[in-house]
Amino acid sequence: MVGVVVPLEEKMPNSGVEGLVALVAADMERVNQTILSRTGSDVTLIPEVANHLISSGGKRLRPMLTLATAALCGYKGEGHVKLAASVEFMHTATLLHDDVVDQSDMRRGKLAARMLWGNEASVLVGDFLLGQAFKMMVEVGSLACLDILSSAAAIIAEGEVMQLSAAKDTATTEDAYLAVIRAKTAALFAAASEVGPILADRPREFAAACRSYGTNLGVAFQLIDDALDYGGTSAKLGKNVGDDFREGKITLPVVLAFRRGTEAEREFWRRTLEKGEIGDGDLEQALATMRRHRALEDTVERARHYGAMARDALEIFPASPAKQALLDVVDFCISRAH
Q: Residue 329 in contact with residue 69, Cβ under 8 Å?
């Protein structure tokens, strides 16, 4: 059993997001109904694969951001429900595709869809969900929202390719890594947060504020995930601790440990991550090297910095339950590492 590096308190799964969950509960019920109805298909494999992942207990944080920012901006229509469902479909599609690219065995504590139905089915069902997402965006009838979400889809794909290009490259810089997660993770957080004020027809500065909030929250969220992969628990992650290491992923804790390490330590990272020569005790050695160079603590510290920027972005909005719920989400994302 690998020792915990980043201390973790036992928290309720929704600790810090109760306000958001309560705020959007009624709308989220409609989003979930929409998701279920839109995964229906005469091709039985499609609902089987889609529902395996959709019903596996994800936080649904991204669609909740769409609903909450719409509430923050006083939106009174119906379009936010379909856009929130579109956001969740986009996210689910990227997870299905990611697991194939990364050859992951686990997702949210269960066998990845590709392990049950194969890589081909996972990719094709992901494509189906993307198609359904765009169909719902068109139904909402907002060209601006369609532009934001379709642009995010392209940026996410670019991020995936950037990550593929940087895979196993220990020379990756912190700037290069942040560019990947801005595209791969933060772009969908940003788009999910921006469409609320656009639907509500609020002035541009409010849409920009929500986009900034989502971008910085997304970066913070991913950095905490990176730290948890080395210092968390399987139950908390929904995948195995050390998966990033075994898959040769270059994440921020690795970038920091590599940069700060001795030549012998750098050779260890080259052997394990670039060449994939991982033996018994190597994960423990990776953890010890990260501990020596404060790589995990500093990754969490970087996340706190982005969290602070997310909070500041919302300061132009007056106090409201929606604003407070969105601020609490920042604390929730960061507190997963404590």
A: no
Is the Cβ–Cβ distance between 289 and 259 less than 8 Å? Answer: no
| Confidence at residue 6, expressed as pLDDT on a 0 to 100 scale | 35
- In 3-state terms the chain splits into helix, strand, coil percentages (rounded to 5) of 75, 0, 25
Domain that holds residue 330: 18-335
What pLDDT score was predicted for residue 7?
35
Task: Count the domains in the chain.
Answer: 1
Residue 12 domain-assigned (yes or no)? no
**Residue 281 · residue 249 · CB < 8 Å:** no
Q: Where do we find the tokens 């494999």? A: 45
Query: Looking at residue 110, which CATH number applies to its domain?
Result: 1.10.600.10
3-state secondary structure 56-90: CCCCCHHHHHHHHHHHHCCCCCCHHHHHHHHHHHH
In a domain, 75, yes or no: yes
pLDDT block averages, 10 residues each, the chain of length 338 = 33 67 97 95 94 85 98 97 98 94 86 94 97 98 98 97 90 96 98 98 98 98 95 63 88 97 98 96 96 97 98 98 97 88
Alpha helices in 103-251 (DSSP H): 113-117, 119-140, 143-166, 174-181, 187-199, 204-231, 234-237, 243-246
| Dihedral pair phi/psi, residue 111, rounded to 5° | -60, 135
255 located within any domain: yes
What are the tokens at 226?
Answer: 């990176």
Quick check: is 8 in a domain? Answer: no
